[in-house]
Write a structure and sequence with these properties.
The chain has 169 residues and is an alpha+beta fold. It has two domains: 1-38; 46-166. The chain has helices at residues 2-28, 46-58, 83-94, 123-139, 155-160, and strands at residues 63-70, 97-104, 108-116, 143-147. Strands 1-2-3-4 form a four-stranded mixed beta sheet. The N and C termini lie far apart (87 Å).
Length: 169
């Protein structure tokens, strides 16, 4: 009788262990969908998409539009001011992006563009924009703020707002 109980116990333990292992395998697999993550479907808002199309027509050949690029992928933060200053600024740069990074040739940084809609009038956005202006100025990368209704802007008007294009690299 004891052997039957031990055998039953081992069968149940094996079944439970296989169930746990199967659950772990499913969670690690590519088909696992817990609902924690979902696709945004587009990385650009409709407003940014309209600007992207306008910018495509305004840029001369040889330039590439890179949307939503993290600041830490564009600039390097120096460690010469100590670990605390480095980490603070690196973290800030990791958590922010520019709307569009324009490159020329084989991914040479030309300039960055921020679309400044009405949300940029909020105090937190003003602070963010001032920080980005400082970072890009110190890094020697032009950061152009585009304001106004881009939905009614022409490619020529946009080109006139991008003075960097008159002095190509």
């Amino acid at each position: 009788m004891i052997w039957i109980i031990i055998g039953l116990f081992l069968v149940l333990l094996s079944a439970a262990l296989l169930g746990v292992l199967a659950g772990v395998a499913t969670k690690k697999g590519t088909n696992a969908r817990s609902g924690l993550f979902a696709s945004r479907n587009s990385i650009l808002t409709p407003y940014e998409t309209a600007f992207h199309a306008l910018l495509t027509g305004a840029l001369p050949p040889g330039y590439t539009i890179n949307p939503m690029v993290r600041i830490s992928d564009i600039v390097k933060v120096s460690k010469k001011f100590g670990n605390s200053v480095y980490q603070t600024n690196f973290n800030k740069c990791c958590m922010k992006h520019v709307d569009f990074l324009i490159t020329k040739g084989p991914c040479i940084i030309a300039f960055a563009i921020e679309l400044d809609d009405s949300s940029h009038n909020r105090p937190d956005r003003i602070d963010r924009d001032q920080y980005l202006d400082h970072v890009f100025k110190e890094a020697g990368i032009p950061l152009i703020h585009v304001t106004g209704n881009v939905m009614s802007m022409s490619a020529e008007e946009l080109r006139s707002r991008l003075p960097i294009l008159s002095n190509p690299m």
